[in-house]
Amino acid sequence: MKSNTLKDLSSKEPFHAGLTKKLVLAKDGKRITNEAVLLTGELLRIFVRTLHQKAAVEAECEKESCIDESVSAGDAVVIQPHHITKVAAEQLMDYC
């Protein structure tokens, strides 16, 4: 199940600092230190990676329970938006 996307997500490449800053400071134009931007970026990276992994498990379970004969066992697992929706609430609760 190791895809290129999963390999990319498992790298230690942090979120882009500018994007992280925009996500955090979407309101009120407050200031944030560079260290806080790096830490927030790392938390976002871990959050997205974990969400991706949980959605992949959900997609795999759905594929295994599928009785459609047109889907063979060797087909790749494709994560669809509904897989993310199923695991998103649990993922958010894990980080509260």
UniProtKB/TrEMBL annotation:
Keywords: DNA damage, DNA repair, DNA-binding. One of its GO terms (biological process) is DNA repair. InterPro entries: CENP-X. It holds the Pfam family CENP-X. Coiled coil: none annotated. The keyword Cell membrane does not apply. One of its GO terms (molecular function) is DNA binding. Belongs to the CENP-X/MHF2 family. This is Transcription factor CBF/NF-Y/archaeal histone domain-containing protein.
